[in-house]
């Protein structure tokens, strides 16, 4: 930490703005969660608490409404598959782009960055059109959504991994190779363990991006069987009007936070074993460039 | 009935309108209707049904699954339903072979011409469909399928004004007609029109006495655009298809809406303690009343065409149709299920009797017909201007 | 020794391209070609019967009539209103993001002290909460009988305001709420990296802490401010769900994305929808290039 910082003294106004902002950003979420526990149909005020919209209601509750299970299942399956496909491709691509020099490499690096700055609607439209006009043989629904999500998230992985690679440098690998390891052995035995925190960060970012995505999933959705939670929430704002929607969002929230929490804990454990400094927030911060 | 289903229906209606556009063009190009349809003959009489499975394409929640189970039990077959979102999607996927099915459960009137012209549906052999006799007689010769050779009607509904009787006087609505929507300045933000370019502009045309609702006269469309755009400032109009819940829940007071929306609203969307008396429906007099319907048909590529015919027949059975209606909420085109019947059976409150179009109203009804790509584009571009803020 | 790998001759580094190939292939196949498909559709035609797009894959067959119609509308017709509104919403939302995000990022980076860990956790949390859930929360709050109206009622203000009937401020507040977390973090990481000695130097030269901020910290944070602004406004320009979600389909808040969705998905004029997407991309091109160039520069600096 910077020893000089303390000298500037406290900044009460800034502190107030900051904590008011934190309240403002999080309180509505708590309200939404509280409303999911309403016993009545109101989506605007607090009513006596019950689990009616989770499982009590025989038709409209989360437990009894098949379309909600489908949405939840679709979202998690899509996110899991996206992680499995996008992370390895992205890690390999980061390694390749970091080490490979030349004009083609620069062009590839530029190509990799474009998806990050492309508004989602452009993505959604482009994928929608390419699948309906060119790759018509690709089964619609989940397969197309998966391909879309992977396309959308690969670059995030590359950026996160590259910033870590730059920080690690090449000396560990060089040492391993001097000791007789092959290039691949050096990567597997030395580099990958060092990259573990960044890989974790990427997996988490990919997961969150996929779970959060509305536009691409929606453009590539073919009806109820391929709806995800965001699509359901979007459609639900107008169509249905029970707190079951809040219940769905709440469950999704808890699943996401639990997954992220577990991943973070796992990451810490790994780092402690590896005797490394925990490297907080490097993943997200590196996204900012 | 589910809300998403209504979404789909609304989208299908608007998309159907567009899709059908090809027909006049096709005909203009010399492909006369009879010629294109002669590519396939109806199936022969007296065939025994196939073993199935019977593959149906339909919107989500647009058929009572108990009815399906009954059919499966009666014929000892398995039924598989592929869900589609929009009418366009169905046509596109059928044309490209992405979906293979035996029964098209819900063809929009505007798309039937295309399906026939494209050779996607086959002429029916009525000998398998004796229950066609149960159908309201007007549908014996519908505008979209002369002689009903390719289709049997499924559900139908009319377009009018849904309103809250506790906030706005019924007599006033009757007196003002469509002007009710333009005059609802006391209910700013509580007024909506259908999210459908044809429906909304038609309303504006009818208000000015234009009954040629399939016009492609740019001046008339521009006038309709100007009229509908006035609503933005006059009543802070909303554009959606959610009146079926918004009126019962009270967030909307006056809305251009479909008659079935009030029936569904009364059945399922009133808050506890609110009587269905608060719901009112007005529609234009016969001759200016727009009535829309969906139809069922057998696909040309059906692998179980006989079974498909039997399914159509089954759905036209009086009791089956009633059972289906009780869950789906959209009135079937069955003569027996007229206003008197559905009111006596408790499906529709007496004061919403006018939500059931009468035979007379249907026979004199106006229909939204396909306009060709150029005609449709005029409406679409006008609509884009309206939703952009007038 | 460190530099050996990096100094390898070009032919030797080419080995590494094998690792990049799957990713490059993927992005070419599903991103570049997809964007090309948008052009092929925009400059193609549509089936008069089924209304599906008939793309013109061969650039020699491109037909620019739809695009010139769209451009006419954008510069002189009804679409100008939509574009102006979109830019206004995004601009106001950006101002809001800066007004809220800068002090918060600054505090978190330089003043938070002991509570920094907790604060960072709170700032990162919205990342893990679905965007639409956060919007859902606002639709709950903004109902006519919702908590926002109750809250302003406590201050004696009229508590029967409508928020969800097409009010532009609801959309702008919604956009700020939705995107400000994405604004804060990049800015935070820049502010955090500013060397405290510069600030100390400013103070030593007799500047007040506010003057030091204006003369030292603010200029040094400009790159972060720019990066944060770009990553926030790019997605905002393509947003069509926040406004329609928060205003139940009012024509008063339509943005460019809504028109794209209408032409592409609701009615069959795919060439028009695709053309609009290209116009939007062209308008955002400068921002996109700016972000890419700065990112590549930083990568190079980090590799050195």
Describe the protein in words.
The complex is a heterotrimer of chains A (289), B (390) and C (304). With 289 residues, chain A is mainly alpha-helical. In chain A, 72% of the residues lie in helices and 0% in strands. In chain A, helix 3 packs antiparallel against helix 8, helix 4 packs across helix 6 (142-168) and helix 6 (142-168) crosses helix 8. Mean pLDDT of chain A is 84; it is low at 1-8 and 277-289. Chain B is an alpha/beta fold. In chain B, strands 1, 2, 3, 4, 5, 6, 7, 8 and 9 form a nine-stranded mixed β-sheet that branches. The radius of gyration of chain B is 21 Å and the shape is globular. The model of chain B is unreliable at 1-38 (pLDDT under 50). The two termini of chain C are 14 Å apart. A two-stranded antiparallel ribbon of chain C has the order 1-2. Chain C folds into two domains: 19-63, no CATH class; 78-303, MetI-like fold (Orthogonal Bundle). Chains A and C meet through helix 1, helix 3, helix 4, helix 5 and helix 6 of A and helix 1, helix 3, helix 5, helix 6 and helix 7 of C.
């Amino acid at each position: 930490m910077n020893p000089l910082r303390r000298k500037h003294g406290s900044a009460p106004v800034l502190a107030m703005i900051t904590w008011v902002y934190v309240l403002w950003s999080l309180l509505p979420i708590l309200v939404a969660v509280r409303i999911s526990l309403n016993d009545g149909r109101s989506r605007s005020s607090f009513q006596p608490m019950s689990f009616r919209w989770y499982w009590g209601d025989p038709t409209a509750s989360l437990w009894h409404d098949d379309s909600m299970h489908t949405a939840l299942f679709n979202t998690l399956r899509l996110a899991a598959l996206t992680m499995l496909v996008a992370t390895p491709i992205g890690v390999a691509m980061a390694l390749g782009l970091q080490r490979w020099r030349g004009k083609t490499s620069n062009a590839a690096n530029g190509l990799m960055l474009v998806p990050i700055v492309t508004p989602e609607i452009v993505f959604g439209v482009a994928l929608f059109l390419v699948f309906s006009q060119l790759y018509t043989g690709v089964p619609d629904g989940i397969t197309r959504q998966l391909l879309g999500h992977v396309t959308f998230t690969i670059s995030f992985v590359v950026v996160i991994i590259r910033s870590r690679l730059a920080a690690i440098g090449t000396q560990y690998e060089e040492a391993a190779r001097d000791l007789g390891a092959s290039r691949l052995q050096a990567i597997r035995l030395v580099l990958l363990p060092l990259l573990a925190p960044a890989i974790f960060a990427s997996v988490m970012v990919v997961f969150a991006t996929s779970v959060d995505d509305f536009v691409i999933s929606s453009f590539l959705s073919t009806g109820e069987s391929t709806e995800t939670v965001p699509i359901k929430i979007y459609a639900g704002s107008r169509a249905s009007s029970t707190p079951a929607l809040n219940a769905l969002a709440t469950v999704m929230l808890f699943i996401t936070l639990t997954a992220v929490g577990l991943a973070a804990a796992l990451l810490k454990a790994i780092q402690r074993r590896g005797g490394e400094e925990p490297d907080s927030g490097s993943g997200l911060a590196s996204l900012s460039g | 009935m589910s809300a998403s289903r209504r979404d789909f229906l609304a989208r299908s209606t608007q998309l159907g309108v567009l899709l059908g556009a090809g027909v006049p063009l096709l005909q203009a190009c010399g492909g006369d209707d009879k010629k294109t349809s002669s590519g396939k003959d109806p199936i022969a009489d007296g065939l025994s049904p196939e073993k199935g499975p019977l593959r149906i394409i339909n919107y989500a929640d647009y058929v009572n699954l108990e009815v399906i189970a009954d059919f499966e039990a009666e014929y000892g077959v398995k039924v598989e339903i592929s869900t589609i979102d929009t009418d366009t999607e169905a046509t596109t996927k059928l044309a490209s072979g992405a979906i293979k099915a035996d029964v098209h459960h819900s063809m929009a009137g505007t798309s039937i011409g295309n399906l026939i012209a494209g050779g996607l549906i086959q002429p029916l052999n009525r000998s398998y469909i004796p229950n066609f006799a149960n159908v309201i007689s007007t549908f014996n010769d519908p505008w979209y399928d002369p002689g009903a050779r390719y289709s049997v009607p499924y559900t139908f509904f009319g377009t009018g004004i849904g309103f809250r009787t506790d906030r706005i006087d019924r007599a006033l609505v009757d007196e003002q007609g469509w002007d009710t929507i333009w005059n609802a300045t006391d209910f700013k933000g509580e007024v909506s029109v259908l999210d459908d370019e044809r429906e909304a502009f038609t309303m504006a045309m009818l208000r000015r006495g234009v009954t040629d609702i399939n016009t492609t006269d740019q001046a008339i469309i521009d006038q309709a655009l100007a009229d509908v755009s006035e609503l933005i400032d006059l009543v802070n109009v909303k554009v959606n298809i959610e009146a079926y819940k918004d009126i019962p829940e009270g967030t909307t007071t006056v809305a251009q809406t479909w008659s079935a929306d009030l029936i569904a609203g009364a059945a399922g969307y009133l808050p506890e303690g609110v009587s269905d008396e608060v719901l009112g429906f007005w529609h234009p007099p016969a001759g200016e009343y727009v009535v829309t319907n969906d139809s069922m048909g057998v696909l040309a590529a059906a692998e179980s065409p006989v079974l498909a015919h039997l399914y159509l027949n089954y759905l036209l059975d009086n009791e089956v149709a009633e059972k289906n209606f009780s869950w789906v909420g959209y009135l079937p085109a069955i003569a027996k299920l007229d206003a008197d019947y559905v009111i006596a059976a408790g499906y529709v409150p007496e004061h919403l009797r006018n939500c059931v179009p009468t035979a007379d109203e249907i026979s004199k009804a106006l229909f939204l017909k396909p306009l060709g790509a150029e005609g449709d584009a005029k409406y679409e571009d006008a609509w884009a201007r309206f939703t952009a803020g007038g | 020794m460190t530099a050996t790998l990096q100094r390898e001759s070009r032919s030797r580094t080419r080995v590494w391209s094998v690792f990049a190939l799957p990713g490059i292939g993927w992005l070419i196949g599903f991103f570049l070609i997809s964007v090309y498909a948008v052009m092929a559709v925009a400059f193609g035609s549509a089936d008069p019967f089924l209304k599906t797009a008939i793309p013109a894959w061969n650039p020699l067959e491109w037909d620019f009539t739809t695009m010139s119609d769209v451009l006419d509308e954008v510069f002189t017709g009804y679409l100008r209103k939509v574009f102006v509104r979109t830019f206004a919403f995004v601009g106001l939302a950006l101002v809001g993001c800066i007004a809220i995000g800068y002090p918060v990022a600054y505090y978190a980076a330089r003043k938070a002290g002991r509570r920094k860990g907790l604060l960072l956790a709170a700032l990162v949390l919205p990342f893990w909460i679905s965007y639409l859930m956060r919007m859902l929360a606002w639709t709950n709050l903004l109902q006519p009988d919702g908590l926002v109206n109750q809250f302003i009622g406590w201050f004696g203000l009229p508590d029967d305001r409508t928020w969800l009937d097409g009010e532009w401020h609801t959309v702008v507040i919604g956009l700020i709420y939705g995107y400000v977390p994405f604004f804060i973090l990049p800015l935070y990481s820049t502010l955090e990296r500013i060397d405290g000695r510069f600030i100390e130097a400013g103070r030593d030269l007799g500047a007040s802490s506010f003057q030091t901020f204006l003369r030292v910290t603010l200029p040094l944070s400009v790159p972060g401010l720019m990066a944060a602004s770009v990553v926030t406004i790019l997605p905002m320009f393509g947003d069509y769900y926040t406004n329609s979600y928060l205003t139940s389909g009012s024509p008063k808040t339509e943005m460019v994305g809504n028109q794209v969705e209408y032409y592409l998905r609701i009615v069959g004029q795919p060439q028009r929808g695709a053309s609009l997407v290209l116009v939007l991309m062209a308008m955002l091109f400068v921002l996109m290039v700016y972000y890419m160039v700065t990112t590549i520069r930083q990568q190079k600096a980090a590799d050195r």
